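Hello, quick one for you while I still have it in my head. A protein chain has come my way and I'm curious about its shape. I'm sending you its amino acid sequence along with the backbone structure tokens. I'd be grateful if you could look everything over and explain what you see. Here's the protein in full, and shout if anything looks odd to you:
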Amino acid sequence: MQRLSVEGFIEARAMLHSHSTASDGRLSPRDVVGYYRSNGFKVVSVTDHGRITRIETLSDCICIPGVEVSSGRSKLGEPYHIVAIMVEDEGILQAKDDPQELIDRVSSSGGFAFIAHPHWSNLTYEDLAELKGYIGIEIYNTGCEVEVSKGYSLTYWDNILSKNPCILGLAVDDAHRYVLPPIDALGGWVTLLLDEETCESVVHAFRDGRFYSSMGPEIKLLEVSSDYVNIASSPVEKVSIISSNGKGFGLTISDLRLLARLWRDRERRRSIENMVSSIDIDMQSGGEVIVAESRYGRMHFLISSGGITEFSWSGKTGSKYLRIEVIDCNGRRAWSNPIPI
């Protein structure tokens, strides 16, 4: 069983894609770090265009060097935008004409490369499948969403996961304006689970995939095996298990309420008996517990504090990979990294 739990770790909110006056941002590099630190971030990388921005670590905030590089051309003639973090060698910038060479240089230098905003960049599946060695792609980009409504790249993620189930998903701001409308900051981030608040621990968290991405909801626990999923989170409206080729499912609190009403009505129960064989509802001190036996398996929900806070599923969990997505009542999402099946 694979397990991700915040217990025993330091939860560190991290911004891995941001811009400063060193390229085309509104704030100075130190002000970018100060902006995120004042909003609860413990890790910040200022990733200006075409130059590695280095900032001395400030109190209570780890600054990691980074850069965004436009490199090569995609199938549709657009440049790849590749973000490199944990990089010190300016020599990697010499590979701006070849995205694979760029990624290779970043990896060999001990850094991490990920593909920025595939939707905004108009990339194709072939563009992502042909490159090797990058750790992940941006699955949500605040700037791209508020500017041109192309911030979500989840379809790209699921497509490439069907080929490589180890590609990680990252949420970022890619902020430039920060405080000017439309606000392009504080919309998406990565929560790292650190052993200690050091740069070395940040490196280990990335190498182990010990993080999740979010726009707001918190994932407290995730346990996955070939026939079992268990998740605990802040209160959310919807829980989804997503896998390859249409496998998996998603359920909202409204769905659960409707299923329970239909089950209690003997006449209307027939309409769902092809999906559900039993539903039990139990009011406990911790909240409302709903247990359903279905053709998909056994599902257990705890509804408390206005949302689903615990969910487990025993049954066939998918193929190749699965990932968890939760959505709160304000439409904000959080995503686990994929788990190969």
Remarks:
- The two ends are 11 Å apart (CA to CA).
